[in-house]
Design goal:
7 strands, Rossmann fold, 49% helix, Single alpha-helices involved in coiled-coils or other helix-helix interfaces, 3 domains, alpha/beta, seven-stranded parallel sheet, Helix Hairpins, single chain
């Protein structure tokens, strides 16, 4: 059943988001994530209507391998920021099973204390097979949270490894969490994500792991010397932290503020936001063109013919793509 038919008008959704009604904010996000055409049309109108109320938050991406402690860090960091008077939204992306297309969506249970604070909002979403560690509608969800008055948005990625570069295209600051003894020390120079990070945190630096974490920190600092200088003039810091105790969160926040000050001074922050919007447009356009091809009956039949020819080695992939494009756009 379409969410647009459940008694909430566009004006009611907009009003609820702007008056910081968390229940209506959740429904607005669900509307944006719906695959129904009627819901998608209403979601587009809603985003357009609240656009002038967006853009004032700090968007922080948090990524790292599974088990690195992203959720534990986000809860500790979120509670730290709440004490400083900020309103925190956490957009957590959970992996979708390729077999049954389901997601656990368990991050609220992993951030129990944070989820109970009225100045915090936690929204888990399935990535639904979307590449890059985020979901297809993460950007729209960011805008809705900004319109609802959340001034720090934390985006937690799926946590599958090096492919999670898409989070860089929607965040102002990217935190990369690592742990010692996971093999990352040896692979650090090879990781494309590492040079995209704005700060590297060696997590779980507590107890018997403190000394090993310090050694891992040194390894990452040495590896960063081999990377080219950032165009935003920022030197990537590496720090050890313990999310459970917690430690060094004030230092992490100071680095983030230093970065924002620098990049706003040299205009990188504003230019990056503009480039991200264009990237969002290009990605959305590509997705809609693909949906058009898949949903059009004639194009769907032609696509199946070409797929069969490719499977039978009668056509190459390149010629198959060219043939379908010529058929779709004569």
């Amino acid at each position: 059943m379409s969410l647009a038919k459940k008694n909430l008008t566009l004006d009611q959704l907009k009003s609820g988001v702007l008056t910081r009604d968390r229940l209506i904010l959740s429904r607005a996000i669900t509307l944006c994530e719906s695959q129904l055409l009627e819901d998608q049309q209403m979601a587009t109108q809603l985003i357009d209507s609240i656009l002038s109320h967006t853009g004032k938050s700090l968007r922080i991406g948090v990524t790292g391998i599974p088990g690195v402690g992203k959720s534990t860090f986000i809860e500790a960091f979120g509670l730290f920021l709440l004490k400083k008077g900020h309103r925190i939204a956490v957009l957590s992306i959970d992996p979708t099973s390729k077999l049954n297309h389901g997601s656990i969506l368990g991050d609220k249970t992993r951030m129990n204390e944070l989820s109970q604070n009225r100045n915090a909002f936690i929204r888990p979403s399935p990535n639904s097979g979307h590449m890059g560690g985020i979901s297809e509608k993460t950007r729209e969800n960011i805008l809705l949270c900004e319109a609802a008055g959340f001034d720090v948005i934390l985006i937690e990625t799926v946590g599958v490894g090096q492919s999670e570069v898409a989070v860089k295209d929607l965040s102002d600051f990217l935190l990369l969490l690592m742990i010692s003894g996971a093999g990352d020390e040896l692979q650090g120079i090879k990781r494309g994500l590492m040079e995209l990070a704005d700060m590297i945190l060696v997590n779980k630096s507590d107890g018997k792991n403190i000394e090993q974490s310090k050694q891992t920190k040194i390894v990452f600092e040495q590896a960063l010397h081999y990377f080219p200088n950032n165009i935003n003039q920022w030197k990537i810091p590496v720090e050890t932290i313990s999310s459970r105790q917690p430690t060094n969160l004030d230092q992490v926040w100071q680095y983030i503020n230093d970065y924002i000050t620098l990049t706003k001074t040299n205009d990188y922050f504003y230019n990056n936001r503009k480039d991200q919007n264009l990237q969002w447009f290009h990605e959305g356009l590509s997705n809609q063109l693909l949906k058009h091809i898949f949903q059009d009956p004639k194009l769907s039949v032609k696509k199946k013919e070409i797929e069969q020819a490719i499977q039978q080695d009668k056509k190459s992939v390149a010629s198959g793509i060219e043939a379908l494009l010529k058929y779709a756009f004569p």
